[in-house]
Design goal:
The structure holds two protein chains of two kinds.
Chain A: E1 6-8, H1 9-23, E2 27-30, H2 47-51, E3 56-57, H3 63-75, E4 79-84, H4 94-101, H5 104-107, E5 117-122, H6 137-141, E6 147-149, H7 154-166, E7 171-176, E8 183-185, E9 199-202, E10 207-211, H8 214-228, E11 233-237, E12 240-242, H9 246-256, E13 259-266, H10 271-283, E14 292-296, H11 315-326
Parallel strand pairs in A: 2-3, 2-4, 4-5, 5-7, 6-7, 10-11, 10-13, 13-14
Antiparallel strand pairs in A: 1-8, 6-12, 9-11
Helix pairs in contact in A: 1-7, 3-4, 8-11, 9-10
Chain B: H1 2-26, H2 42-49, E1 57-60, H3 65-70, H4 75-82, E2 106-109, H5 117-129, E3 136-141, H6 148-160, E4 164-170, E5 173-174, E6 177-178, H7 189-195, E7 199-204, H8 208-225, E8 229-234, H9 255-262, H10 266-276, H11 282-305
Parallel strand pairs in B: 1-2, 1-3, 3-4, 4-8, 7-8
Antiparallel strand pairs in B: 5-6
Helix pairs in contact in B: 1-2, 1-10, 1-11, 2-8, 4-11, 5-6
The chains are: A alpha/beta, B alpha/beta.
């Protein structure tokens, strides 16, 4: 049997950029620190050496202008890939994103689109606190003209980033820091995964769990545990939250009649709320119980180890919610005894961010 | 010089007469969008625009009619756009504040102050990467100097050595707020920009020959050094910030101030020079006027008789 090619999410991102730059000489990569010793958590390592300073370069700490620079380069024929080590800094660039990038194609009568991809890395835990941990996908998804991508696996990170760069429109590519060291089977070849298509990452029959990004991983942990206890969960990995693949969501719910939607962002005004309202509008008669959601509370994330203890949604919360929805009781046992502290994705994570 | 002089004159006149026609027709309620006229500021636009090549890229602001026309933008498509027609340069999606004519390198004007400044720098960056023999031009006003993105963009253009010509038309007002309440007294915009590392110059924005010559010099400098250049052109907006009317009566500026500037009407001043220097006769001036008015009449007829876009087009795909 052929050995599986396992690489990390970080390596997959790097491979997607490398292969995209190789395929298309118009792809340029910039952002604060893309060529520094840390190379954006290793995702841009070696690219400047390979493609030169003209195509891979560090920039001033000017998020708004640099987004505009990317837009200008894009309408002149380049395919810029911008990187922000923390999403929260990108909030300084809302004028360029919302008033220019998202509108350009529409407001100039479809003459010229803006093929820019903006990578945003999001944190959680390890004291990231109020302004280093925001998952604002709902903001971006709210703006007509933007595509919003949120991969959960290494393979998707690669295939979806390739598609994002190839796409002729502005794409917000959101990477959860807790996924960066996750390993998965990834094809060596240049293979785009289409934007706007969800992935049934785990088949099941009793309930549908719809999730994005890091919440997919928590959902899988919960589903594995529940499986051992005779409960079969189907996990729908959204992959992109704008546009949302409702067909895949509806098909899954038609089978299970139940849905739990997970979100990495705060609850009110979230993607999970949008999905639940569409499900209610379209599948009211199919549902046999009310749809449920789990998302972050409507508070900023506190910094202290103590303050995040009950803040994030974990696989344990998912298990409890599903048992409640199915009105079942099982022995929770050692699943609820964590092997590592609640504010890290695993023992490997030692900060600082 | 005489052929160029006549071109400069005709272009300024075209802008003036177009704007006056818009003002005259605006109250009919058929141009249903915010409209910012360039009357009084024609020399700044024409002097720069006619010094550019078609392959130079330009981006502009909410007050862009003059920049668009001076870059060679299609007049019929502009008027049709203001009328919201399918034949407009944005098919009715942009209106007066969003003009584009890619055929002549006018890459777009947008409504938010300062919004296109970094975009123009990005166009310049792309030209630099591709080693193109052309530059990028950013039109902005004194108001944009108060936006953060102005400093970010100037800083990046200087750091990265990007072939951009910044053209700042200083008309002393941001909507109704005079420069004195917005920027410290005595600090010159062009001097501040020089302090940031971008070569700059100041010029009378109502003297078209001076503007044209400065632009040519600036472009040579950009090619010579590879560095950006910044021009501050002093000028004055004759009418209200947005709309067709004069507004000297509402109290934010005086009639006297306006009349002082009216004495410096860039078109009248230049017309006098052309006659005095015998570059053309009164008859030729009349002929140019007639030609321009004919062209404008045709453009308004085109716009008025063009169809509206189908309402369903509002919900076409958002994506390319």
């Amino acid at each position: 049997m052929k050995k599986k090619r396992l690489i990390t999410f970080v390596e997959a991102i790097k491979e997607a950029i490398d292969q995209s730059m190789q395929k298309d000489g118009n792809v340029i990569v910039f952002g604060l620190g893309v060529d520094d010793p840390k190379a954006i958590f290793g995702t841009t390592e070696g690219l400047q050496k390979k493609y030169g300073k003209n195509r891979v370069f560090d920039v001033p700490t000017s998020e708004n202008a640099m987004t505009g620079v990317g837009i200008g380069a894009a309408i002149d024929g380049k395919r810029p890939l911008m990187v922000h080590q923390r999403l929260d800094f990108f909030l300084l660039a809302m004028d360029q994103l919302v008033n220019a990038a998202a509108k350009w194609y529409f407001m100039f009568g479809k003459q010229q689109s803006v093929p820019i991809t903006i990578r945003l890395i999001m944190g959680r835990g390890w004291g990231q606190g109020p302004t280093h941990s925001q998952n604002l996908q709902a903001w971006f998804a709210h703006i007509p003209g933007l595509k919003v991508v949120m991969p959960a696996t290494a393979a998707d990170a690669k295939g979806l980033l390739i598609s994002s760069i190839k796409d002729n429109n502005p794409v917000i590519f959101m990477e959860h820091r807790w996924l960066h060291n996750l390993k998965g089977e990834v094809s060596k070849s240049y293979k785009p995964i289409p934007l706007g298509k969800a992935n049934i990452i785990r088949k099941g029959s009793d309930i549908s769990i719809v999730a994005m990004s890091y919440m997919v991983i928590e959902a899988i942990h919960a589903a594995e545990f529940l499986e051992e206890n005779g409960i079969s969960c189907e996990v729908v990995d959204l992959r992109t939250v704008a546009p949302i693949d409702y067909d895949s969501i509806y098909n899954s719910i038609k089978k299970t009649k139940k849905v739990l939607v997970l979100d990495t962002g705060t609850l009110d005004g979230s993607i999970s709320g949008e999905i639940v309202s569409k499900v209610v509008e379209n599948l009211w008669d199919t549902l046999d119980s009310k749809p449920e959601r789990l998302a972050m509370p409507n508070f900023p994330e506190g910094t202290s180890f103590a303050l995040t203890k009950n803040y994030h949604v974990s696989s344990e919360d998912i298990v409890l919610k599903i048992l409640e929805m199915l009105n079942q009781d099982i022995e929770l046992g050692k699943f609820f005894k964590k092997e590592y502290p609640h504010d890290v994705p695993g023992d490997w994570f030692t900060g600082p961010f | 010089m005489s052929l160029l002089d006549l071109k400069l004159y005709k272009n300024m006149l075209l802008i003036r007469k177009v704007e006056e026609s818009i003002a005259k027709n605006y109250d009919a309620g058929k141009m249903r969008c915010p409209t910012h006229l360039s009357i009084g500021q024609e020399a700044a636009a024409s002097g720069v625009g006619l010094a550019l090549k078609k392959s130079d890229s330009a981006v502009s602001t909410h007050r862009a009619h003059a920049h668009y026309l001076a870059k060679g933008g299609n007049l019929n498509a502009m008027i049709a756009e203001i009328y919201g027609k399918a034949t407009g340069c944005c098919k009715g999606r942009g209106g007066s504040m969003h003009l584009i004519d890619r055929k002549v390198g006018f890459e777009g004007s947008t409504a938010i102050v300062g919004n296109t400044i970094p975009i123009g720098v990005g166009l310049g960056l792309s030209k630099k990467i591709s080693k193109k023999k052309s530059i990028s031009v950013v039109y902005c006003g004194d108001g944009s100097v108060e936006e953060g993105v102005f400093y970010e963009s100037i800083n990046f253009a200087a750091t990265k050595k990007i072939p951009v010509l910044f053209v700042c038309e200083n008309n002393s007002y941001s909507v109704y707020s005079p420069l004195l309440v917005r920027q410290p007294e005595g600090r010159k915009i062009h001097e501040m920009v020089k302090g940031m590392g971008v070569d700059s110059a100041y010029e009378d924005g109502n003297d078209i020959r001076k503007v044209y010559r400065l632009t040519k010099r600036a472009i040579s400098k950009i090619y010579e050094t590879g560095n950006p250049f910044f021009m501050e052109l002093q000028t004055y907006r004759w009418r209200e910030h947005c709309g067709p009317n004069y507004d000297n009566n509402i109290g934010y500026r005086s009639e006297e101030e306006f009349l002082e500037w009216k004495k410096r009407d860039p078109i009248k001043l230049f017309e006098k020079k052309l006659l005095k220097e015998k570059i053309c006769t009164k008859g030729e001036i009349r002929r140019i006027n007639k030609e321009v008015l004919g062209q404008i009449k045709e453009a308004f007829n085109f716009a008025k008789s063009s169809p509206f876009p189908d309402p369903s087009e509002a919900f076409d795909s958002m994506f390319a």
